[in-house]
TrEMBL record:
Belongs to the LysR transcriptional regulatory family. This is Transcriptional activator FinR. The keyword Ligase does not apply. The keyword Transcription applies. It comes from the Bacteria. One of its GO terms (molecular function) is DNA-binding transcription factor activity. Signal peptide: none annotated. InterPro entries: LysR_HTH_N, LysR_subst-bd, WH-like_DNA-bd_sf, WH_DNA-bd_sf. Residues 4-61 form the HTH lysR-type domain. Keywords: DNA-binding, Transcription, Transcription regulation.
Length: 309
């Protein structure tokens, strides 16, 4: 029969996650010596080195990288078998979700509330990052599902469109451009900008939209926080590019205005992503199904009456 155990596979997965025997031992409630022995036995059975030591870190070897997704799949399937044998509802357990800022602020709280209400045995563990870090988190097995802004081009990940959310160019109502019926590309090139940091989905789409049109944009500051960007734009002479969903209160209170820039196409997708090699997951399917219901029939497009007449 099998020459290795699920426990050895779980130990391997934990050490791969934390790159440390001591941390893995603490997470598994095992002694360090027990973790080391279990890992050594697995490598002996497989007759392959699964890790390379780099200082105090244990880094996956070539064979370790090959084994990692298969170990994940095996552990997920084993968990579902255990749930079934104990007559537990399949929609039970913890799903690790890593989301970009806009979705995390405006959409994910309602999604988690709905799941908490309808599936009380399911837990969502949420982490908030920019799009680049969400993708990296998935590839490093640090989360189960991600929510990103824009397109994913990594063939190791699967993507499902959730909704569209336009980006808009905004300024203070006192900015000279706020009075224009149309703001040209030449005018945008002369402006001072406050933007998201490189790697953010918002920044990627903005850079893509101006590519080939504006060569030398004047980026004054870059911030991870949309709140900081909005505040600086509202109280200064800068322009900003932000998601429409993020500025509804400021539009209502006349703190910001949307500039008409018909030459720029900045529609973006907000999507779910997960690893192609991950096992079928009732928790993931539940999350996706509830997310579709949450936004069905809703529009997230800018209202034309908020642009200068």
């Amino acid at each position: 029969m099998f020459k290795f155990s699920l426990k050895q596979v779980a130990v391997f997965d934990a050490v791969a996650s934390y790159e440390s025997v001591s941390i893995a031992a603490k997470k598994l409630s095992m002694t360090q010596s027990a973790v080391s022995m279990s890992l050594s036995q697995l490598e002996s059975v497989l007759d392959r080195p699964l890790f390379n030591r780099q200082g105090n870190r244990l880094v996956l070897s070539h064979w370790g990288h090959w084994l990692r997704p298969r170990a994940k799949h095996l552990l997920q399937e084993a968990q579902q078998i255990e749930f079934g044998l104990h007559d537990q509802h399949l929609i039970s357990g913890t799903l690790s979700l890593c989301s970009s800022q806009t979705a995390a602020k405006h959409l994910v709280p309602s999604l988690i509330s709905k799941i908490d209400n309808d599936f009380p045995e399911m837990r969502i563990k949420l982490n908030i990052e920019n799009t680049e870090n969400v993708i990296e988190s998935l590839l490093n097995y640090d989360c189960d599902v991600g929510i990103i802004e824009g397109r994913n081009t990594d063939s190791r990940l699967q993507q499902e469109h959730w909704l569209d959310d336009d980006l808009v160019i905004v300024s203070s109502p006192n900015h000279p451009f706020a009075q224009y019926k149309q703001v040209t590309l030449a005018q945008l090139e002369q402006a001072k900008w406050i933007l998201r940091e490189p790697g953010a989905g918002t920044r990627r789409i903005f850079d893509g939209a101006i590519h080939g049109y504006i060569d030398n944009i004047k980026v004054w500051k870059e911030y991870e926080s949309i709140r900081v960007i909005k505040s600086l734009v509202a109280n200064g002479s800068y322009l900003g590019c932000v998601p429409y969903l993020d500025i509804l209160p400021e539009l209502e209170n006349n703190q910001l205005v949307v500039l008409p820039t018909p030459q720029l196409n900045m529609q973006r997708e907000i999507s779910f992503i997960w690893r192609n090699d991950s096992a079928e997951s009732p928790l993931r399917e539940c999350l996706l199904s509830e997310a579709r219901r949450l936004t069905k029939g809703k529009s997230f497009k800018p209202r034309k009456d908020w642009t200068p007449a």
